[in-house]
Design brief:
4-stranded antiparallel β-sheet, disordered N terminus, Fusion Protein Consisting Of Minor Coat Protein, Glycine Rich Linker, Tola, And A His Tag, Chain: A, Domain 2, 18 strands, alpha+beta, 19% helix
Length: 245
C-alpha cells in the first residue's frame, strides 16, 4: 500500500507534482490539445480537475504556457512540431486492456497519425482480431488458466529437475507463444540457478505451450505482444498445481 505522506510534492509549471492527484492526473496538471488545419497545438495548461463544464481560468493558463514556451506561444497556442506518434479515441466502450495508469486500449478506436505535429492520416481500427482456430483472449485474467490447462495436459512426471517457479509467457503479435522465461532479472538467474536446470525448465514449458494459438490484440491498430504471468508448483508425486495469483 502506498503511503501518501511519503509522496513528493515538487513543483512543475507552478503546479503541485503528485499532490493528491489520482492516477489520471498524477503529474498534478493537465494539458489540453487541439487540432486546427491539420496541425497539433497545445492550447492550455490547467490545474488537475480544474476543467469543469468545459471552462477553466484561461488567463492563468496563458501565463503558464507563455512562461514555459516563450516565443513559441503564438495566437493563444503552441504548435507541437516535435511530436511523432498516434493519438486514439474510443469508438466503443469495450476495454481490451488497461494498465491502470497510462494506457487504455478499446476494442474499436479512431486513430490520428501525427508526424512532426501534422495530421497525416485518420483511421478507424479494430484492436481485436479473431484468428482462425484462435483462443479468445479478450479477458486477460483467464489466459493464465488456459495456459496452465495446456501445460498440465502435456506435462510428464520427470525427476531431472523441479520446475516449480514463477514464469513469464509471451504471446507474440501473431498470437503464438514466442518465449518463456522466469520472472527474474538476468543477474538473479545467474546467481541463484544452475544454467542446466534453468534451460531444462524453460525448454520444457515452451515445448508444451508452443502449439497454442490465440486471437490477436492490437494497440492503436498495430499488433502487439503480451506477457502473461504464470506460477506453477510441482508436488512430490509429480502433480502440477496452478499457483498463479
Amino acid at each position: 500500500m502506498q503511503r501518501h505522506d511519503t509522496i513528493k510534492t515538487d513543483q512543475l509549471f507552478g503546479l503541485s507534482f503528485r499532490d493528491g492527484a489520482n492516477f489520471n492526473c498524477w503529474r498534478g496538471y493537465q494539458a489540453i490539445y487541439g487540432i486546427q488545419n491539420d496541425s497539433l497545438f497545445l492550447v492550455a495548461i490547467i490545474s488537475c480537475g480544474e476543467l469543469k463544464n468545459g471552462k477553466f481560468n484561461r488567463s492563468q493558463s496563458i501565463d503558464k504556457i507563455s512562461s514555459i514556451f516563450g516565443r513559441r506561444f503564438e495566437n493563444g497556442k503552441v504548435f507541437i512540431d516535435w511530436f511523432d506518434g498516434n493519438i486514439s479515441f474510443p469508438l466503443s466502450n469495450k476495454v481490451l486492456r488497461c494498465d491502470g495508469i497510462f494506457n487504455t486500449t478499446f476494442e474499436k478506436e479512431k486513430v490520428l497519425l501525427i508526424s512532426k505535429g501534422l495530421l497525416t492520416k485518420i483511421e478507424e481500427v479494430s484492436n481485436y482480431v479473431d484468428s482462425r482456430n484462435g483462443i479468445d483472449r479478450r479477458d486477460k485474467e483467464k489466459i493464465p488458466d488456459i495456459i496452465f490447462k495446456e501445460l498440465k495436459k502435456k506435462w510428464k512426471n520427470q525427476k531431472e529437475f523441479d520446475c516449480s517457479d514463477k514464469y513469464v509467457v509471451t504471446i507474440d503479435s501473431n498470437g503464438y507463444i514466442s518465449e518463456v522465461k522466469m520472472r527474474y532479472s538476468e543477474q538473479e538467474i545467474e546467481k541463484y540457478y544452475e544454467m542446466t536446470e534453468y534451460k531444462f525448465c524453460i525448454d520444457k514449458l515452451f515445448k508444451a505451450l508452443r502449439a497454442l494459438k490465440f486471437d490477436v490484440i492490437r494497440d492503436k491498430g498495430q499488433p502487439v505482444s503480451e506477457d502473461i504471468y504464470l506460477e506453477i508448483w510441482i508436488d512430490d508425486n509429480g502433480k502440477l498445481e496452478n499457483w498463479t495469483r
